[in-house]
Amino acid sequence: MNNQEKHFKIKSYSNTESQRVLEYWTPERISKAKPISPKKITKEALEKDFRNQVKSPYETESIINQDNSSSLSPFLGEPYEVDVNDFPYSAGGKFLFTQGEGEDTKHFHGTAQFIGHCQMILTAAHCVVDEDTGEEYKNFAFARAYRNVDGNEEQELFAIERIGTAEGAGKFAELDFAFCRTTESYPGQTLALKIGEPAPDGHPMHAIGYPEDFNDGNVMAAVDGTREKINDGSFVMEGNPMGPGSSGGAMMVDLNIEGRKWTNLVVGLNSRSYEDDNTVELSPIFDQHTIDLYNEVLDASGENPRRC
Questions:
Q1: 307 within some domain
Q2: Model confidence at 170, in pLDDT bands (50, 70, 90)?
Q3: Are 227 and 283 in the same domain?
Q4: Using CB atoms within 10 A of its CB, is residue 156 exposed (0-12), middle (13-18) or buried (19+)?
Q5: Same domain? 29 vs 73
Q6: What is the pLDDT of residues 246-286, one digit of tens each?
Q7: What is the DSSP string of the chain?
Q8: What does the alpha-carbon distance between residue 21 and residue 24 come to, in Å, rounded to a whole number?
Q9: Which comes out higher in pLDDT, residue 229 or 298?
Q10: Among 22-26, 120-124, 156-160, 304-308, whose mean pLDDT is lowest?
Q11: For residue 210, what is the domain's CATH number?
Q12: Number of structural domains found in the chain
């Protein structure tokens, strides 16, 4: 798809509705939310998609905001718990949503993080719309720094007042990203987002999320791997077995750009994986369209003056 073919789907919620959703998410409902499972892709289909890989020299493009710390494990491909009180993990949390009505309501969670502005969070589009039907989920909220150990549940809950995806986000891996604007400002440090080619081939990458297979998704986990295959719309992080529950969690890198050291730059997110290989995750490549959607959801002119 080219940028001329891409359009946005934006939805806003009233203060009354946002407050209702905030009250809806009781600690019990949050703890019982099931991890959303990303779409699985056959290795054959993915290999075909990456047959014409990008061969151009590594380039860098636009960056939203800045950060200042990094931590990598020597155990590549092995998830481990991280401290949600420490940056960059303090910017992340569980992304909550529901499907269905009444007694048929199902509670789900993915992962999200504050990006570039005190009211803006990034997650996967498949945490906002059903990939198969295009149906929009409901009751969106963000539980920052979520942790539940021995029944002691901790989080800072944020209501969502505006949310946006690209049209066709459920059909195309390269569009599997969404932005949300929270009703209240987060006073802590936010992550930075970079568009363009994520990193050189084989470059170390760091991903976060709330994977079901690690402490039942009750704590934030991180994993270290490398950037591998890439095409014009998506790339693969190898050594990333995070799986269900980690959808929308950031993929980060440390880079030197024009003589400046950047750490924890968000260059992708947990989106899709192989059907028969749970050690890799596919991510969209962020581009100018990503920035345009970000600005559309932020809507900083008039209605929502910057409050950070």
A1: no
A2: low
A3: yes
A4: middle
A5: no
A6: 999 999 999 887 788 888 999 999 998 777 777 888 899 99
A7: --GGG--EEEEE--HHHHHHHHHH--HHHHHHPEEPPPPEE-HHHHHHHTSS---SPP----EES--------SSTT--EE--TTSTTGGGEEEEEEEESSGGG-EEEEEEEEEBSSTTEEEE-GGGTB-TTT--B-EEEEEEEEEEEETTEEEEEEEEEEEEEEETTTTT-GGG--EEEEESS---SPPBEEE-SS-SSTT-EEEEEE--TTTGGGSS-EEEEEEEEEE-SSEEEEES----TT-TT-EEEEEEEETTEEEEEEEEEE--BEESS-TTEEEEEPP-HHHHHHHHHHH-TTTTS----
A8: 5
A9: 298
A10: 304-308
A11: 2.40.10.10
A12: 2
Same domain, yes or no: 179 and 233: no
Look at residue 283 and tell me if it is in a domain. yes
Asked whether 182 and 142 are in contact (CB, 8 A), the reply is yes
- CA-CA distance, 148 to 153, in Å (whole number)? 4
Give residue for tokens 């949600």.
84
What's the pLDDT score for residue 206?
A: 95
Instruction: Clarify whether residues 256 and 152 are in a common domain.
Output: no
Residue partners of 153: CB distance under 8 A and separation at least 6: 27, 30, 31, 146, 147
Q: Quick: pLDDT tens for 30-77.
A: 999 999 987 777 666 655 554 444 444 344 444 555 433 344 555 678
**pLDDT bucket at 137, cuts 50 / 70 / 90:** very high
Based on the domain organization, do 146 and 222 belong to the same domain?
no
pLDDT, one tens digit per residue, over 73-100 is: 556 788 999 999 999 999 999 999 999 9
